[in-house]
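Why run this: before we spend reagent on co-expression, it is cheaper to look at a predicted model of the complex and decide which construct boundaries make sense. The entries below are exactly what would go into the expression plan.
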Amino acid sequence: QVQLAQSGGEVKKPGASVKVSCKTSGYTFSDYFMHWVRQAPGQGLEWMGWINPNSGGTNYAQKFQGRVTMTGDSSISTVYMELNRLRSDDTAVYYCAREGDGSAWYRFWGQGTLVTVSS
Amino acid sequence: DIQMTQSPSTLSASVGDRVTITCRASQTISSWLAWYQQKPGKAPKLLIYKASSLESGVPSRFSGSGSGTEFTLTISSLQPDDFATYYCQQYNSFSRYTFGQGTRLEI
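The model came back. Tokens follow.
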């Protein structure tokens, strides 16, 4: 069965970087785009971008361009999301979410990773 | 970017009620809309995709309809497990995807 296992929570200081991993299993890694979605405490869902694990191609939401990098490692079926120049309003739960069959609806989600940005 | 507006933001209902949540897109998105249910501390769960296709394993009391710019999620007879927050999501644009702000369904 498809599983997305994310790395553990992180506490970072403003200005630092964080890199969250999402290890996949149960399907062919290169066959499906992976998206990242975040949710600030008590707030709604916010789409951040996607990576095509087959080509390494990415597409980021305009809000995060220049600060986010999504990468993949096919040898270990893992995707990563790195966010730089962290601010307090980046405090959120970050989810990886796998695309459905050729469309960006999400049947499979990681368990979420809480990133806390605090001085 | 396409904006998604859900209404209401909060909905109070009782077990057995029929409820409807609306999602409006700022421009046409054909049928490229999904609905999710989220409970506290959990990842969202897919309910409906392509506006009206019921995800496998989701109870048939959930249904979705609409196309273009106006969409609805209907729960025909509320069960205790249905009290949660619901989000719509458009995936019409290849490069930009957006969620509605959420509807909290409470007793």
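Residues 16 and 77 of chain B are 4 Å apart (CA to CA). Chain B touches chain A at residues 1, 32, 34, 36, 38, 43-44, 46, 49-50, 55, 87, 89, 91, 94-102 (CB under 8 Å). Bring this page to Monday's planning discussion.
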